[in-house]
Amino acid sequence: MPRRPREYRRTPALLLLAVGLAVPSAGLVLAHGLLIAAGLVLAGIAGELFDSFPPDR
User: Is the pLDDT of residue 37 over 90?
Assistant: First the structure.
C-alpha cells in the first residue's frame, strides 16, 4: 500500500502537539516556569509542522 507524501503526514505533528500541551499543563500544576516555557516551544514547533506547504527558498 502506498504511503502519503511526507508533507501530508500529520502524526508527528499531532504527537508533538499533544506533548506540547501536556508539558505546560504540568508546569502550571507544579508551578515550574521551565516546563511552561518548554511546552510553549514544543507547541510552536508542532504548529510549524502542520504547515503543508513551506515557503519557497
Answer: yes
